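Morning run. Coffee first, then this:
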Amino acid sequence: MKNCWFPILLLCCSLFMGCSSRRTHDLRVMSYNIRIGVGMDTTTNLERTAEVIRRIHPDYVGLQEVDSVAERTDWVDQAKELGRLTGMHPIFAPAIERSKGLYGIAALVKKEPIAIRNISLPGEEELRTFLVLEYPDYLLCNTHFSLRKPSRLQSIEIIRQALEGYQKPAIITGDFNMRPASEECTKMGESWTLLTDSTQLTFPSDHPRVTLDYIWGHQGYTYKVKQFEVVNEPMASDHRPIYIDVTLF
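And here it is:
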């Protein structure tokens, strides 16, 4: 009779370990199109960009429009410099060559990921890219969509396929270059849950008229957004930064 309890004990331990392994994570997630550090006064000033980021204290910020050692921005590795100025770890994802250097998107993170993927996306005017940072329990992603609708629709499908193999929650930040009522936003909503308020305008930064910047959570998981803000920053870039405080389940 005593031996009959052993399989039951093993099953209970297994169930307990499975439940305890599903941890929650509290993150402050930010998205910012920095326009290569060029403000509304046409002055390039990465210190000003960094000050905006430091003010928010994010765990992760997805950056769009970033130069790497390009002539037009005085040969500065902008992701690396912003990492130095904010005390965060920089990750650059090139999309194209520009001005004798590279141009694309980047991320600044407090904790380094265990894996990084940079996936090319289409763009009729210029190629785009999709950055995936993998952590043990979640993914943090960043992108900057094309100005052209067909390319945006293609990008949404490429992203969907790229994340099929992951069994963990994912957040994606970006300048999506699409309006809330667009076909692309509807398509995005088939696989993603919008975690930001699309009625809060983000562009242009001095007098916002449209929403182009969003943060999404991959469906199938739970995201509790405790705070969302469009940062009142009218000068440092032509986009206003956005951020959320979110719990991932």
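Confidence is low (pLDDT under 50) at residues 1-20. Good start to the day.
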